[in-house]
Please model this.
Amino acid sequence: MPLLRRFSSSFKKHKATPNNKDSANGNLTPVDEADAPKQNGTQAGSSVAQSLEKTKDVHWNSSYNPPSPPAAQEPVAGDASGPATRKDVENIFQQFAQLLHASQRPLPTQSGDGQYLDEAKPSGFLADLKSLGLKDVKTVTHMLEDKASGKAQDDRKLHMEEIMQLIAALPDRSANRVELTSMLLDVLWNSLQHPPMSYLGDTFRYRSADGSNNSYIFPKLGAANTPYARSVSPVMVQPGALPDPGLIFDSLLAREDFKPHPNNVSSIFFNWASLIIHDLFQTDHHD
Model:
């Protein structure tokens, strides 16, 4: 036991001396006053004072840098910690308005997948003018003249076909194209005859397959296996020898030069349209 005490005291003295390896490098080892050997109070105090005097000429070689103070953070827009700006308030009201608009919007039933269709913005009047030419200006003039006169249109002037060409030349998103299409459909509908669905019951509701019941006044006129009869009394005396039917056809219906229609529309187009809307589908007048 006395040997261990002497060894520990000598080790502490060696550790506290400034001539060790750390002191040679300029780094001092701190000395704990509680572990230093104390024979009396004066010796401990004097050893501490000597150590402080020797440290005056020692240069510290330390690489420790104190941390810099944190920089002040700027308030973030929309953050509760910072003041709210006018733009933040406008964004909140705009989001609230969008929510109200979406709640009142009808459900998307046209797409089939539950998504809303993109609403295309209609093109302006300048875009319509760029797609038109000098020929379309004449068409608009004819259309205004026919509208102002209030009279029936002459199909031989092909004004309706010119309107079709004008509508086809307009852009797809043109608002004027929709209005012209609706006006054209009204003109087409009003130009066709709209007889009542039935005069004398179901018998005259449809044309028969044999050609009968085509007229409620003369039901058998034009029917199969019946002689041809005129419904208009002649005003001129008929000759005794009737002309050849082929000669009559060539004289009245044949044409020497073929003139194609501007829109490739057949001459029986309107009669065929009347047959479809009145006999096949029974179109309602309100539709």
